Amino acid sequence: MYYISFTHACTLIALSYIALKLKNRLFMERYETLSASLLTGLACIIIMLQPFPTDGLVTDLRFAPIVMAGLRFGPIVSLLSTLLPSFYIIQIGEVHGFVRIAQELILPAIVSSLFHRKENESGYAMIPFIDGIKVCVMLAAIRFIIQTYMKLDFSLLAIASHLITLVLSILAVLVLIVMYNDDNRSWILQRRFELQANQDGLTGLPNLRSFMSIAQNTIRQRPLSIMMIDIDNFKHYNDTYGHLQGDLLLCEVGQLLRTTIHESDYAARYGGEEFIIMSHTVDTDRLKQYALQLCDTIARHHSQVRSDSAVITISIGISVAFGYQDELLRVISEADEALYVSKREGKNRFTIYSDDIPFTANNA
Questions:
Q1: pTM (two decimals)
Q2: 319 and 328 in contact (C-beta within 8 Å)?
Q3: Backbone torsions φ then ψ of 30, nearest 5 degrees
Q4: Residues 251, 302: contact at Cβ < 8 Å?
């Protein structure tokens, strides 16, 4: 009769595989609480639809999806997952239905949630096998106490039935954890490759490829400004102190820009000693203050922390795109022209592009 539990386990694994393949879909990410609860509840119902012997095993594996929901998502999703199968049990009039709901659905949701780890929600943490084993043992112990108390049955056959059920439960949950952790490793590896493809290897900032993709989507939706930034006299600094110090300087400037720009803005390395910023600030007066802050931050930082006599400053060129039909490449080209004016007029300053004569501000 125990081959039926093997069928349940195979069904459970197949359902888990399907759920893992669906979890990265757009609607799954946007409505994770709802979709995870719905899929978990459906998995419980499908398992309940399988044949189950009236003697031998004390329970089927309907609780296993609930356990995984509790370990992965915590109490909210695990408890919501019990609603659909609970309604199904009531509808079909299962014997001792409310007891089954409490024992096989609600109790696993609560117990598994006790072992939920906050870091699991980020998707970057693995579920420990020991947590799955502990949950199964606790549920088996509670089930044994309740059923033996109600039936007053302490026979060897009853104890063996509980032990076999416990072993099958542990094996099923461990297989589900293995599948989830393996899929999670693949997901983490994929995100790491994506990050490397979109990240500048030296400064840690996004690279130009990543910047262009985000800026292209943004310019279609709202006005924005582009800042082209160049480290002044970088070639001389590189020749004087060496390429290693030059690389360190690029990293320092990149990190300063990252921490100084507005939270909603986006900075990237353009290439060489140049950086580029996409900003949602388009008001001219605010842009002046913004650019002045960037120039002052770089100059002040390096004058305070550097022991050599080198003066580190930046020049900035700014272009604003007010219309939704503006082309990103043209806006970047205008910012680059404004940057050239800043370099020509003495460096350590910013220039705002205009159709006539660019506005230039001295920061010296």
A1: 0.56
A2: no
A3: -75, -40
A4: no
Task: Give the integer Cα–Cα distance in Å for 118 and 299.
Answer: 41
Q: Predicted confidence band at 80 (pLDDT cuts at 50, 70, 90)?
A: very high
| Cβ-based burial of 171 (10 A; exposed 0-12, middle 13-18, buried ≥19) | middle
Tokens in use for 79? 């408890």
> Residue 219 corresponds to which amino acid?
I
Structure tokens at 350: 């910013």
pLDDT (average), residues 10-38: 65
Please tell me which residue, 363 or 119, carries the higher pLDDT value: 119
Q: Is 327 a catalytic residue?
A: no
Of 273, 274, 334, 345, the catalytic one is 273
Residue 229 and residue 353: Cα distance in Å, rounded?
A: 14
Chain length of the chain: 364
Query: For residue 205, what are its two tokens?
Result: 């900032």
pLDDT of 201 reads 84
Which domains can be identified in the chain, with CATH numbers? Answer: 3-193 (1.10.1760.20), 208-362 (3.30.70.270)
Residues 6 or more apart whose Cβ sits within 8 Å of residue 315: 229, 230, 232, 339, 342, 343, 347, 348, 349, 350
